[in-house]
Structure formats: C-alpha cells, structure tokens
Amino acid sequence: MEIDPTRMCELLVGLPDVDVVGVEDVACGPLRVHVRCRERDRWCRECGVRARLKDRPKIELVDLPAFGRRTRLVWHKYRWQCPEPNCPRGSWIQTDHRIAWPRMALTDRAARWACEQVGRYARSVNEVAGELGCDWHTVNEAVIAYGSALIDHPDRFGPVEALGLDEVLFVRTGPYRRQDFSTQLVDVSAGQLLDVVPGRSGKAPSAWLAAQDQAWRDLVRWGTLDLSGTYRSVFNAMLPHATQIADPFHVVKHANTKLDECRRRVQNQTMGHRGRKTDPLYRCRRLLTKADERLTDHASTKLRGLLAAGDPDGDVATAWRAKEAVRDIYTHTNAALAMEWTERLAYELTAANQPIEVRSLGRTLTKWKHQIVAWHHAHVSNGPTEAVNNLIKRVKRAAFGFTNFANYRIRSLLYAGKPNWELLETITPH
Ligand SMILES: [Zn+2]
Prior knowledge:
Blueprint (H helix, E strand, L loop, with lengths): L4 H9 L4 E8 L5 E7 L14 E4 L2 E9 L2 E8 L2 E3 L9 E3 L14 H12 L5 H8 L3 H16 L10 E12 L4 E10 L4 E7 L4 H8 L3 H5 L3 E4 L3 H10 L4 E4 L1 H24 L8 H4 L1 H5 L7 H14 L4 H14 L6 H15 L6 H23 L3 H18 L5 H12 L14
Parallel strand pairs: 2-5, 8-11, 11-12
Antiparallel strand pairs: 1-2, 3-6, 4-5, 6-7, 8-9, 9-10
Helix pairs in contact: 2-3, 2-4, 3-4, 4-16, 5-7, 8-12, 8-14, 13-14, 15-16
This protein binds zinc ion (ZN).
The site of zinc ion has 7 residues, from loops.
C-alpha cells in the first residue's frame, strides 16, 4: 500500500511521468487537476543546443470524471525557443500523446472512452458530453478522430463472398423535408457494414468498388440487391463475374407495394376519396400486407369480410393472392422448381384481365427472374437477409437524423461495421 502523499496523488491521477502540481476545488465547478511533465524536452533536435524557455502556457483539457465529479486536467506546458538565429525549428511546445493529442480538447483517455461510448454502445454525443461536462463538438471531434482510425484499419474486413448494395434514407432536411439517401455496402454473410457512400446513384458505389483491389473484387461471388436498375448496373460494370441475387425482402416488399397501390386505386374508384377510418379497404390495409400464415382465423375471416365489402371487382383480392404467390417463391427449396414457379407466376400475372398493378408486378418478375431464382442457387438461407435487415435497423438507430454525412458514416460504421475495439487502446487518432 502506498502511503506517501505525493505518490498517492499520482496514483489517483494515473498519468505516466507527470508531477501533480495541485488540485483546485471550486464549489459547483469541475475538479481541476494541475499537472506538469517531468521530461522537459529542452534540447533543440535540429541544433543540439539547450533551448531557452519562451513561456509556460496552461492548457485545460476535459478529462474523465474523478470519483463522480467532472474533471479538468490543467497541463502546465513549456514552450521552448532555440537560441540559434538560423534554427529551422524555431520554437516548440512540449507534447505528450499519453496525455492528449495536439489540438484535442479531451485528454487521450477521455477521448478513447468517449469514442467507445458513442461508437460501440450507440450512446448519443449529447449524453456523453453531458457526463463529461463539455459541449457536443468536443465529443464529436474525438469520435471522428479516433473512430476514423478504427474504421479505416486495413484489417477491419477481408475478402467478402456475398456483397449487398442497399439504399438507406439517412435524413430529411429543409422545409420540404427533402430526403437524403445513402448507399450501404454490406458483407451479407457476415452481417457487417463495409461502408456507406452518399446518394443512391451508381456513381459512389462504383467508385468504392474501383478503389478495392482486383483480387478482392474477384472473390465476390454473389451480389445482392433490391429491384433497382441502378445497383444492377453497378454489379454489371464492376463485378461482372458475380451472380446477382434479388434480396427476398425487397421482392416481397415490392409485391406489397403493388398491393397497396391497388388498394388505394380501388378505394378511390369505389368511394371517390382517400381512405378513411371507416372504409373497409382502409381498415384491412395492415391485414393485407401481413403474411397469410401469420393471420389468426379471426383476422383471416375479417380480411375476407372487408374485401367482400370494399372490393367489388376483386382486384385487391387478386393483388393479395399475387403477393402471397410471390412469397411462395421462397418456399421452394429446388432452384429449377423455383424458376418454373416464378415463370408461370409472371406469365399469369401479366395476363390482360389482371389488375394493372398485378400486371406491373408480373413484368418485374419477368425482368428479374434470374436474380430472384439465384437466391435458391446461392443456398443462402434467410439468415443473411435477416442479418442485413437487422443491420439496417441498427444503423438507423445509431445514425438516423444526421445532417452531416461524414458524422453519419462514422457513427454507422463504428456501430455496425464491426471495428476491432481491442485496437482502441493503441490506434493513433486521425
Ligand atoms: Zn535549433
């Protein structure tokens, strides 16, 4: 046990090679711990001569709370000047990365802690700033500086067998709530967010893929995508050898969208207005998009009753059956049977007597049948799809509402990009 008062104090402060000069305790204010480095760095590295003390600035840094109190570290530094008139170094200030990195307002240990709280545990920057007793920008700066070093680490991801491209809404801005989209690149098998690039055009994801090694691109066997021509072109151009897979989640979602369009059209035609609480079609909108096998007997009877009342020509019922038939594509375990099913379905749905939305769905199936059935070839279970959908939710929870793309990207990648948090102690902030 240490009983020397000076050593005890040093132990509590816990910084290497510093003298604790004093502790300032102001009522209601943070605890101020004054320190000075033992190493004085007073020799000019260029000329090898002893430097002159120019001044002794004090730098106040936000540190981790001590015993439940907000704490500031006041670092008494030395600024030296070389006496040689032609010295290229001129003057310099003492630095020690173990205390803090230059220009950072947080001590190194507080910055690493803040980065982990925000990045790994998805705490808000405000909350962490509140705990440290500093402002939002101070914490955000630390998250960006240490976080980028973690996510840019070359070992964060290796070869990827199944690559997914997905558009994600990350913010609505301005008086018209303009939607800003981003594209996320995902390792579908590992459920790892590889990167986020701005926009939902093909430009940024293509550039991202172009920046990877040819060898890395060659190893991508599967490319999963929604039913968008944009990402299809990206895969065609950048990963021509990869088999494209239409993400089942998006295929079923598309069928549901068509069903919804049909319901709204019939609603308008029969009632002459948009859905109201009492309209049968409006009342069944949630039941319609639910999977049939998940409807209770009661709900199923209710759905049929509401359709009978609000859907005189049976268009909505047809669109509903089409949606269920699309879902059935994924009950097939055999790829050849799945193709047969998809082709026959597409053929039936495009028949002239089908509702307009159902025909549109049929055409989409025809256009994407290879990508749809490729899912059966890949033998990827629903697992990866689930992983990715959960990932999207996590990313949104961590990042939704960001107005600044760089912040959004770093926060998403720290939370869902599986950085190696073991490295946090040793990385150099950017
Ligand atoms: Zn010098």
